[in-house]
Design a protein that fits this description.
Elements (H helix, E strand, L loop, with lengths): L2 E2 L16 H12 L6 E2 L4 E2 L6 E4 L3 E3 L3 E2 L13 H10 L20 E4 L2 E4 H8 L3 E3 L14 E7 L8 E8 L1 E6 L2 E7 L6 E3 L9 E7 L3 E2 L11 E8 L2 E2 L3 E6 L3 H4 L14 E9 L5 E4 L5 E6 L2 E7 L6 E4 L7 E9 L7 E5 L8
Helix pairs in contact: 1-2
Amino acid sequence: MEFWVGWFDAWGDEKHHTTPSTDCAKDLNTILSSGSVNFYMFHGGTNFGFMNGANYYGKLSPDVTSYDYDAPLSEDGEITPKYRALREVISRYVPVPPMKFSTKIEKYSYGEQMVTNRISLFSVLESLTMPIESPWPLSMEKLGQNYGYTLYRSALNKNAPLEKLQLLDANDRAQIFFDQQPFLTLYDHELEKEYIVPSLSGTGTRLDILVENMGRVNYGPRMEYQRKGIDGAVLLNGHGHSGWKMYSLTMDAAMAAKLNFAKEYQEGTPSFYLVPFQVENIGDTFLDMTGWGKGCALLNGFNLGRFWEKGPQQRLYIPAPLLRQGNNELIIFETEGKSGSAVSFSAEPNLGAV
């Protein structure tokens, strides 16, 4: 049994979900008057990397990176007013000993840190991962990939007019490029439709489709429909297009180590950004991605999770052990061509307006 003391956030929610402490305390008192209970969640957490789940009730609703849940203990381990209210209720039924903490949580604001280098995904793609070739596009699962992004690449016949394009059985978010120029970004139900290709876009010689796995549905009947990437076909003018190279982009430490920031940067394309910075005193902090579009961030090779300007979450939690005294390296992968010249580190979270 789960006693929901809060709720999780999905990308695009208007605000961070909270539940009043007084309501939780009242409900807890009612439950304890008759029996026992399990808190969900007692301690908030973090969906580091790409480990967030998703719901699907008519549309895809992926969880944000934070799983703070408005829990009695926050994502970063702080005691909240809700904790104190629930502790008081519990003390009515059983003895509650004094609390003693062995560790003091230190938090620091490291301020603004500048982007020093940037490179486009297209300029370093071949050095990041070996492609798998197939007549037809393959899902992430068939490629042996669990999470992250997959880039599907194919040559086009520039002498054959391209008028219509459609993806079959694709999940969850696809960005389509002709000769590295953005054409369409499709999400969830948008992936089910056929699209007209303007003559200017259809004269290219190469088609790239960057597909992002936004998180697996973890509840309900849609759990059985979880093929990510492109599991069907890419239809051009109503016919299945063949001849594909597929690049698995797992966005982990091994991939980050292969980045060569001396390569070319092309504005408006999916790109990597390098932010080196120094730390003297190590403590918890929060990476503020305000002003950036969508993507993920890796700190010293560790994937902190996703960011997305649509919110409600704006800052990514960084526990102190992920930082090094001295030199640190932040690598940001941003897919929308919307970036800043800097990021900032704050001692305070910002989970969205409440």
